[in-house]
Specification:
single chain; about 750 residues; alpha/beta; nine-stranded parallel sheet; about 15% strand; Diatom spindle kinesin-1
């Protein structure tokens, strides 16, 4: 028997944390690990105990779930648990289930923190489309009671014929859909998807209610909409064979239904289709001829479908009922392409849909190959974790490290260079992780190199695969690849500009093009990490009119790949002998307006190299940075190298020459951090260790500054990966640039609790 053979999926969260984990479709059940449509409470009566439901999900192999509340409840004095069993008993909109679900999640936080999962997404299900003006206030109430917990909305009834005998589910008036605007705007602002139950039709008219869904899609094209139950199938549109070729009653056949879905997927890019409801197996998936058109449709649009059971966890339902529903709704996944299977059954579409509302997990998984071997594979969305402890530069779909607690370090001031490793993995950074970083026993260096030059000014680089191996062995999990926007002549045998004064370096797109293409060519390699962010480094601030066209060119060639800009020279004295790096005329900064507006529009940070001064005048160039900050206060600006330190401002025993002392420098930084909330400071460059970090007295003012502004600093090495540089050289740079002092304030674990 089909159901007797299906067992719980062998995957666990631990499998997704292993770089060599492999899901073998040939020997696995091919069912979903995501239940994106689960009702933990019924319409009436008691539910399965929440702890038991968690256990049932675990034993069924469900690792991720969206909990729908059911926004209508039977009367509290009713003995009925399912509306179909008590026609004539009125059900009414209610907040009860949403409150209960949220509190249950809070009450079971310790259990849900277990690495075996499941990871829970909460959905608001109370929205009443017949009373649209009341919804926004209820949303505010729910989110004020449970701030940050609700990341989804649904299942909301646009029309549900099964509820008509219970005085609910009647079709929403089409002209009232425009009145949804206030709460739809709020959903869009928060990135919340809206799951709609909208019956397609019935036996008399197979598409009777289709105009309602079309009106919603046309009116709110920028909202994420999920059409549940394979786009409107229902018991009223009884899926019985009318002939050997027809599933749905005429005038709607299988072909009609598939064509209708495809037309709307093409027209409305924010529309997704939910595959929940076990009846779909009974009437579609059990017959290959009936299933095939849907398989072809899903394979054609693999990023537009979601898995789900539609299980309602009333107390009278046994565990086997849930298992069977998961089995049935997963049946079609056996016949999907690897891409569709990965996106739907293994959850990529689920996490992409949540986007910034919840963490996108950086799973490792693999596909099936004819050779029988499996290769690890990251999910396609690249930005999986924040690259910094703070929130300022966090992009959409990006989580952070707030869930990683840290144990306070001991007295060791500097990491043992013979053990430059970290036990952390990318998966330790996902929301809800119980990982604790023990600073007593760890090297305390960064897992982020947000300032790495993958190619030198001239000559060959370290091969990219070797560079990525070096990063992995050094414990680097996330990196930003800077291209170096200036190149030495191609016929020069020089790789570093300081070794060849008089040889001109010129602005160039070469490194940016090469880095981007290398990342594309190395996609399989990068499935094992690190997570790479690409930076555009070609900007020539002496010729601002060239920037926007070249930026458009790069982004047209590599759409969506560049999400950072830098390192860009405002003034870099070290390049003066190579005819570059001269101070930008202060009046020309106003001419940056167009490209700065575009960076702001795309939410791209810009990393600027701007020397603070030199031995003659320690603050000579500070007015340039001040002008940038004053003119573009809404742009994210990163001031690299501890805010302008350079070899020309030679740090000796007192670190910085008068009139700039350490205290002066700290005040320069502090004043601007206070004044400009979009300013960040980059701590890259190993010389900072040689002249600051090795001495307590010199280091202490900077530690105090960083501890006072912990969300405003970024780690980085400033390593330039010329082929002549060894791995030991990179490790040495990291240990100097990224080794964090034990007096910095972090989260600490003590007696089993994490606290600041």
């Amino acid at each position: 028997m089909f159901f007797g053979l299906l067992q719980a999926a062998p995957l666990t969260l631990e499998d997704f944390q292993k770089q060599n984990a492999c899901y073998d479709r040939a020997s696995s059940d091919n069912w979903a690990v995501v239940d994106a449509h689960l009702h933990p409470r019924p319409f009436g009566g008691p539910p399965v105990a929440f702890t038991d439901l968690i256990g049932r999900m675990r034993r069924a192999g469900i690792l991720f779930a969206t909990l729908y509340g059911i926004g209508q409840r039977l009367p509290i004095n009713s003995t009925c648990t399912y509306y179909l069993d008590c026609p004539g008993t009125k059900i009414t909109p209610s907040l009860k289930n949403d409150f209960f679900n949220a509190q249950s999640v809070l009450d079971n936080a310790a259990d849900l923190a277990d690495p075996v999962g499941p990871h829970i997404t909460l959905s608001m299900s109370f929205v009443d489309l017949h009373e649209p003006t009341a919804n926004l206030e209820k949303i505010k109430l729910m989110q004020s009671e449970f701030p940050g917990m609700f990341k989804w909305v649904g299942e909301i009834n646009l029309v549900k014929q099964a509820l008509w005998p219970n005085s609910q589910g009647l079709p929403v008036r089409q002209e009232s859909i425009k009145d949804w605007k206030p709460f739809m705007d709020e959903f869009r602002r928060q990135g919340l998807p809206l799951a709609l139950h909208s019956d397609l039709g019935n036996e008399k008219n197979g598409e009777q209610f289709l105009p309602l869904m079309d009106k919603v899609l046309e009116t709110y094209p920028d909202n994420k909409i999920i059409w549940v139950h394979m786009a409107g199938l229902s018991k009223q549109l009884n899926p019985q064979l009318a002939s050997s070729l027809a599933l749905l009653q005429r005038p709607v056949t299988i072909e009609d239904h598939v064509s209708m879905i495809e037309e709307r997927l093409n027209k409305h890019p924010k529309l997704s289709i939910d595959l929940s409801w076990d009846i779909l197996y009974d009437e579609l998936y059990s017959s290959k001829s009936e299933e095939r058109p849907y398989v072809n449709l899903i394979n054609k649009y693999p990023s537009r479908f979601l898995s789900g059971s539609d299980h309602v966890a009333s107390a009278d339902k046994i565990e086997e009922t849930y298992r069977n529903e998961v089995n049935k709704t997963s049946a079609i996944y056996r016949d999907l392409s690897d891409t569709a299977f990965r996106n739907i059954a293994l959850g990529q579409n689920y996490f992409d849909l949540i986007g910034g509302a919840r963490t996108v997990l950086s799973w490792l998984l693999c596909k099936r190959f004819d050779t029988g071997r499996c290769r690890p594979q990251f999910h396609s969305s690249s930005h999986l974790c924040s690259k910094f402890g703070g929130k300022g530069l966090r992009g959409p779909g990006v989580s952070g490290v707030e869930s990683v607690c840290l144990r306070r370090a001991g007295s060791s001031r500097f990491p043992d260079l013979s053990v430059l490793q970290t036990s952390l993995t990318v998966d330790d950074f996902k929301q809800g992780s119980s990982t604790c970083f023990d600073r007593n026993t760890s090297d305390q260096w960064a897992v982020v190199d947000a300032h790495l030059h993958a190619r030198p000014f001239g000559g060959p680089p370290v091969p990219f695969h070797e560079l990525m191996d070096r990063l992995r062995r050094a414990g680097i999990l996330f990196t930003t690849l800077y291209g170096i926007g200036q190149r030495l002549p191609i016929d020069s045998n020089c790789t570093y500009y300081l070794d060849c004064p008089g040889t001109p370096v010129k602005p160039s797109l070469k490194n940016d093009f090469f880095n981007a293409q290398t990342v594309l060519d190395s996609s399989e390699l990068l499935e094992a990490g690190p997570v790479v962010t690409l930076s555009m480094s070609f900007f020539d601030l002496q010729k601002p009119e060239t920037i926007l066209p070249n930026m458009a060119l790069l982004q047209r060639e590599f759409p969506g790949m560049f999400t950072w800009v830098g390192e860009i020279n405002l003034v870099k004295q070290a390049l003066w002998n190579n005819s570059q790096g001269k101070p930008v005329p202060i009046e020309s900064i106003l001419r940056w307006a167009e490209f700065m507006a575009e960076l702001r529009r795309q939410d791209i940070p810009m990393a600027i190299h701007m020397d603070l001064g030199n031995e003659k005048n320690g603050r000579q160039f500070l007015p340039l940075m001040d002008k940038v900050l004053e003119t573009y206060p809404d742009n994210k600006i990163i001031w690299v190298h501890m805010a302008g330190l350079s070899k020309q401002l030679n740090p000796k025993l007192a670190l910085l020459q008068l009139p700039v002392t350490i205290q002066n420098h700290v005040k320069v930084i502090q004043d601007r951090l206070e004044k400009y909330p979009n300013l960040f400071i980059d701590l890259s460059w190993d010389v900072l260790y040689d002249n600051i970090y090795h001495d307590d007295a010199e280091e202490q003012p900077y530690i105090a500054l960083i501890n006072n502004y912990p969300t405003r600093f970024l780690s980085g090495s400033d390593h330039v990966a010329a082929a002549s540089k060894t791995e030991a050289g990179y490790s040495q740079v990291l240990s100097c640039s990224l080794g964090s002092d034990n007096t910095l304030s972090w989260f600490v674990r003590e007696s089993g609790r994490c606290f600041v």
